[in-house]
Amino acid sequence: MRDRWLIGGAWRGHDHGRWLSVRDPASDREIARVPSAGPDEALACVNAAEQAAGPWAECPTPERAALLERGADAMERDARRLADLVTAECGKPLREAEGEVRYAADYLRSAAHEARRLRDEAFDAGRPGVRTLAVHEPIGICAAVTPWNFPVAMLASKAAPALAAGCTLVAKPAEETPLSAFALAEILQSCGLPDGVLNVVAGEPAEIVGCWLADPRVRKLTFTGSTETGRILLRAAAEQVIRCSMELGGHAAFIVLPGADLDQAVAGAMAAKFRNAGQTCICPNRFLVHRSMAPAFTARLALAAAELVPGPGSEPQSTLGPLINDAGVDKVRRHVQDALARGARLVCGGQTHPLPGRPDRFFLPTVLADCGPDMLCFREETFGPVAPVMAVSSSDEAVRQANASPWGLAAYVFGPSAEAESVARRLTCGVVGVNEPAPSNARAPFGGVKWSGYGREGGRWGLGEYLTVKYLAIRQST
Ligand code: ADP
After folding, report:
1. 207: Cβ below 6 Å to ligand 1?
2. What is the pTM of this model?
3. How much is the pLDDT for 175?
4. Which pLDDT does position 14 carry in this prediction?
5. How far does residue 345's CA lie from ligand 1's centre (Å)?
6. What is the pLDDT, as a whole number, of residue 17?
């Protein structure tokens, strides 16, 4: 297990006495002490990335793509070890962690595939005697800042297209989950990634990222995290006028239309809501269910939720892991209490599930009925296993409610296909699952609108975020 930074191809640490204590959220035990980087190390990362930038941009695309494909193979071979690490750091059940590792490997393959297909584009600009071309070039040094809830996949979704495009990278994982990021970097290094192309440090976020965004050599920021932090980083990024891809908070609506297949809708709600104990930015936060279906949907969802088994992600029977930390539990509790105080009805859950010798972070799957837009859980992301259900009278009302949020990342619509698709097209967000609870896919454009940010990850859209287009107007010399 790597517990040091990767800078310029060397695994380094210091003894300044500043450490990050990486803890297993299911036991609160320290699993590693990682030296906490600051401005010196941040600068060393950019220096290394700058040194590596020229040769990496000139490396033929098929070679860069082949390296990523070897990386994907290596991740899949090593999936169990990586999944153990993900579970140990962020708590999700092992089966989900293995799914995350495969999803991350897919980002490597998708970026490799798209990079191989990149061509200069000749176009007709209506200029006789002038050949006009759009040529793709790597943006340059990119800074990646990632969250704890998908510690491998979020870095892979950024590193893969950046590296495929020919950019070099300085990356900072979340303080809670640096080990998975180091493991991914180590795998890429073992597959032949040249020194300095990917540099990863963990530590004091504002110091490290502040240093990167003030450095004119860094030409792009790619960020996944909260909207509040996103705003801080965007302000800083304005100084050097750099490109930004911002994947910020979500507040997904889950709409159930009249005539929806209840089995399908309940199974979809279970899959979308309780993954990672509700701690993903595309987890539904607001269930908008047609009045005719709301009682049955709510009752069946509660029955299905009661079958989840709360427990440490490392134990095979667990299907619902702990929340990441005590602050996460407090927020969920606050949202539930607020909803109950404002007239919601508790159908199941509503509290933590004590497990002997373990921290009080296992929040029971919770279903709330009779919810409304004034409740905290309808206004902010809960980031926990809470499904608040509001009955609506029409598709129009569901669309209006869904679009009333300042966020716009994902949504789900369950119902007869044609009607559900038509509702999906009216939603102001970046991703919609139509009778589909798991739309995330490394080949698809993932990202949001409004306070959920901008830019897309995955497929050719993801690759495009790391390329700049140069226009060449070429006339024959005389
Ligand atoms: P979350 O609520 O999911 O933890 P954050 O936005 O706080 O979301 O964190 C996402 C990432 O942003 C993490 O890598 C974290 O270290 C980083 N981060 C948080 N605050 C700052 C900041 N002020 N400057 C730079 N990075 C930050």
Report:
1. no
2. 0.98
3. 98
4. 82
5. 34
6. 84
**Cα 247 to ligand 1 centre (Å):** 12
| Cα 399 to middle of ligand 1, angstroms | 31
Nearest CA to ligand 1 atom 17: 205
What is the Å distance from ligand 1's center to 434 Cα? Answer: 31
pLDDT in tens, 425-467: 999 999 999 999 999 999 999 999 999 999 999 999 999 999 9
Nearest ligand 1 atom to alpha carbon 232: 23
Residues with catalytic function: 247, 281
pLDDT at 339: 98
Instruction: For residue 57, give the amino acid letter.
Output: A
Please identify, by atom number, the ligand 1 atom nearest to the C-alpha of residue 224.
10
Could you give all domains of the chain from N- to C-terminal order, each with its CATH number?
Answer: 5-248+452-473 (3.40.605.10), 252-441 (3.40.309.10)
- Does ligand 1 lie within 6 Å of residue 206's CB atom? yes
Instruction: Check whether 22 has a pLDDT greater than 90.
Output: yes
Which residue has the CA at smallest separation from atom 14 of ligand 1? Answer: 174
